[in-house]
Specification:
Layout: H1 5-8, H2 10-29, H3 32-64, H4 74-101, H5 109-138
Helix pairs in contact: 2-3, 2-5, 3-4, 4-5
Length: 145
């Protein structure tokens, strides 16, 4: 059975990278519409992370219960990828909550430091989790038949 997980991960990744770029552009230019676009990328990317994580969990369960013998080194990578994805969801959820509770967050120099740190953490986790997923597929052959 072909998993839908690879199809579902690209939209949230693109939206969350777009959030980072648009947030940086807002800080540079100060255009309020750019900040609104960044916020919409954030909540939509966060929303689309949920089915991506659910499909990844289902794909991992199918792989591990597949009857064949999975590579012995694959389980550690699967767990790291899953934990990284959960941490990514949590980081972006916290950023979304902060931004929703305080719409002018980016205009307050002191308050935006924590928000930007949370976004940076989310981006780092997104990159590392994506890399781990790519390693599983292209190096370990997980999910390929």
């Amino acid at each position: 059975m072909y998993t839908i997980h690879p199809l579902l991960v690209h939209a949230p990744i693109g939206l969350l990278v777009g959030n980072a770029l648009l947030t940086a552009l807002y800080l540079w230019r100060g255009d309020r519409s750019v900040e609104q676009a960044a916020y919409h990328c954030l909540w939509l990317g966060l929303l689309l992370l949920v089915p991506a994580l659910a499909s990844g969990g289902a794909a991992a369960a199918l792989y591990l219960a597949g009857g064949g013998s999975p590579r012995p080194d694959a389980l550690g990578w699967i767990n790291a990828h899953a934990l990284g994805a959960g941490a990514t969801l949590l980081a972006y959820w916290r950023a979304w909550l902060a931004r929703r509770r305080s719409p002018g967050l980016l205009d307050d120099r002191r308050a935006r430091r924590g928000y930007l740190a949370t976004l940076a953490l989310g981006m780092a986790l997104l990159v590392l989790t994506g890399w781990a997923g790519g390693h599983m597929v292209y190096v370990l052959g997980v999910g390929l038949r």
